[in-house]
């Protein structure tokens, strides 16, 4: 992409990502985009999973397109919707399996947000399924899914590691889709300090097919969207930013409740940063006062240190692992965590890294390097 | 015809052929779906993801958000598309049959 094309694609993509948040739709393009810009826009929209909002922008005339471009939009959305329903069927199968195996499940992200936070689930596209189980059930959940033919994409470093320390793990389902099994919401120190009992303390119900599925309540979904938006990818993906904006726009959004919940989850710094990022990337949106709170809030030293593991330098998993070590309470758990990372099981090393020696070198270097300037 | 659970939980007759005037149409239990401009895309409780294309099919799908009588559906579509009821009925019957065959829709015969 040339920089002119690139800038135009980024502008239009961001405008598509905020489409529908204004009382009257804002114009995105009054003339059809030229073919070069259009082709890159289609790629970007596909990659960002924004085809539902793109279709809405075209349908209400905010984005004027040629007949050929309209065909592209319709096809993009058709494929995305076919994927959404296939994923929801896959999700229902996984939830059934887990529940029959005695594991309580709650649905996260895609399907839950699409149905509960958007006026039409077709506006919110997704590419995998996410479920959360309680930490105590994690090993059982893995056992149930594995027995049913789900293929774990990466093994854990050592037995019991995921149940105690990890964000979760991912599976390729028998139907060929990705299922993310969560214990917590993010890898690294912030994932470890979130009070998971508190996470399971409030919920909503998602009606899907003929099932009623448990999911986070709106405050929980908002906090998760913020975590996903700010800590997930660099630069942040537009869909979780839009999710956060979509939820803040809801008349019953409880900003005070969200702030209180963020404090109990110990993620205030991330939520404040995510709200600021929503405004920076999507432009002015309704925040119910969270923008002022985010602007005025000063993170503590510990929060700053934890955030740095996600935002500074190369955001590698080794950096997060080193920061996570500090977040783990108790000497025995710290030792178990470090041991699992430095001396993982052979199967884990084969799957993820070159050799035990390389892993040891990377792990030790990372821990030593990160500890030195802080202590 | 096969047996299916009725709305009240009792046994009702599920119709496979063209609906009769007093038959009730409803989305099949367990179906998950989306719409996209001119089509319904759905995954039945058992079977493949299917697309049914057409504005008539799409409007039908909206009308069976709650169980609805065939005669009411035909009348609504005739109004929407400014067409004769007989024409709507003739054109829509194959769409209904397709939706039923593919597991997206149930037709419960009036007792």
Please provide a written account of the structure.
The complex is a heterodimer of chains A (375) and B (111). Chain A has 375 residues and is α+β, with helices and mostly antiparallel strands. In chain A, 59% of the residues lie in helices and 9% in strands. Chain A has helices at 3-17, 35-48, 51-59, 67-100, 110-117, 138-147, 161-164, 189-193, 196-199, 218-231, 238-248, 255-265, 268-282, 290-296, 301-311, 317-327, 331-342, 346-352, 356-374; strands at 105-108, 129-133, 151-152, 168-172, 178-182, 203-208, 211-216. In chain A, the strands form two sheets. A five-stranded mixed sheet of chain A has the order 1-2-5-4-3. In chain A, strand 6 (203-208) and strand 7 form a beta hairpin. In chain A, helix 10 (218-231) runs antiparallel to helix 11 and helix 13 (268-282) crosses helix 14 (290-296). The relative contact order of chain A is 0.09. Residues 359-375 of chain A have low confidence and may be disordered. With 111 residues, chain B is an alpha+beta fold. Helices cover 34% and strands 28% of the residues of chain B. In chain B, strands 7-3-8 form a three-stranded antiparallel sheet. In chain B, strands 4-5-6 form a three-stranded antiparallel sheet, covered by helices on one side. In chain B, strand 1 and strand 2 (11-14) form a beta hairpin. The longest helix of chain B has 17 residues, at 85-101. Chain B starts with a strand and ends with a strand. The model of chain B is unreliable at 1-11 (pLDDT under 50). Chains A and B meet through helix 4 of A and strand 4 and strand 5 of B.
Number of helices of chain A: 19
- SS element count, helices of chain B: 3
| Relative strand content of chain A | 5-15%
Radius of gyration of chain B: 13 Å
- Give the C-alpha Rg of chain A: 21 Å
- What portion of residues of chain B belong to β-strands? 25-35%
The gross shape of chain B turns out to be globular
How many beta-strand segments of chain B? 8
Order of helices and strands of chain A: HHHHEHEHEHEEHHEEHHHHHHHHHH
Question: What is the overall pLDDT average of chain A?
Answer: 86
Biggest protein-protein interface?
A-B, 19 and 17 residues
Look at the structure and give the mean pLDDT of chain B: 84
Poorly predicted segments of chain B: 1-11
Q: Given the helix and strand composition of chain A, which structural class is it?
A: alpha+beta
User: Which regions of chain A have little confidence, pLDDT < 50, spanning 5+ residues?
Assistant: 359-375
Strands in their spatial order, largest beta sheet of chain B = 7-3-8
């Amino acid at each position: 992409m040339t920089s002119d094309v690139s800038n135009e694609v980024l502008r239009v993509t961001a405008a598509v990502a905020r489409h529908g948040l204004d009382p009257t739709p804002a114009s995105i393009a009054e003339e059809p985009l030229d073919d070069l810009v259009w082709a890159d826009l289609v790629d970007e929209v596909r990659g960002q999973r924004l085809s539902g909002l793109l279709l809405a922008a075209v349908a209400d005339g905010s984005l004027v397109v040629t007949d050929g471009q309209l065909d592209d939009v319709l096809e993009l959305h058709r494929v995305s919707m076919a994927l959404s329903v296939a994923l929801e069927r896959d999700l229902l199968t996984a939830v059934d399996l887990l529940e029959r195996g005695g594991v309580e499940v709650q649905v996260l992200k895609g399907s839950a947000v699409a149905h509960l936070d958007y006026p039409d689930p077709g506006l919110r596209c997704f590419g995998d399924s996410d479920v959360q189980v309680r930490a105590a059930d994690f090993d059982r959940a893995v056992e149930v899914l594995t027995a049913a033919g789900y293929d774990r994409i990466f093994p854990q470093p050592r037995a019991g590691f995921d149940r105690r320390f990890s964000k979760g793990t991912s599976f390729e389902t028998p139907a060929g889709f990705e299922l993310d099994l969560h214990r917590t919401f993010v890898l690294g120190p912030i994932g470890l300090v979130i009070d998971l009992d508190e996470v399971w303390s409030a919920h909503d119900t998602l009606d899907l097919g003929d099932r009623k599925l448990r999911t986070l309540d709106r405050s929980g979904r908002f906090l998760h969207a913020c975590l996903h938006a700010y800590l997930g990818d660099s630069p942040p993906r537009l869909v979780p930013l839009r999710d956060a904006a979509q939820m803040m726009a809801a008349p019953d959004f409880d900003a005070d409740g969200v702030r209180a919940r963020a404090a109990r989850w110990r993620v205030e710094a991330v939520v404040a940063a995510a709200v600021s990022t929503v405004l920076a990337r999507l432009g002015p949106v309704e925040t119910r006062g969270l923008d002022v709170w985010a602007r005025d809030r000063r993170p503590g030293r510990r929060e700053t240190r934890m955030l740095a593991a996600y935002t500074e330098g190369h955001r590698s998993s080794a950096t997060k692992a080193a920061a996570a070590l500090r977040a783990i309470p108790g000497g025995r758990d710290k030792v178990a965590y470090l041991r699992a990372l430095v001396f993982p099981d052979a199967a884990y090393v084969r799957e993820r890294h070159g050799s035990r020696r390389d892993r040891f070198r990377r792990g030790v270097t990372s821990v030593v390097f990160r500890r030195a300037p802080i202590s | 015809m096969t047996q299916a659970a009725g709305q009240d939980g009792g046994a009702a007759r599920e119709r496979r052929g063209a609906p009769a005037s007093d038959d009730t149409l409803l989305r099949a239990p367990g179906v998950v779906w989306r719409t996209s401009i001119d089509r319904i895309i759905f995954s039945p409780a058992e079977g493949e993801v299917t697309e049914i294309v057409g504005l008539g099919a799409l409007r039908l799908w909206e009308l069976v958000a709650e169980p609805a009588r065939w005669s009411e559906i035909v009348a609504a579509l005739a109004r929407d598309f400014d067409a004769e009821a007989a024409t709507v009925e003739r054109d829509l019957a194959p769409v209904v049959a397709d939706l039923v065959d593919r597991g997206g829709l149930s037709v419960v015969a009036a007792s």
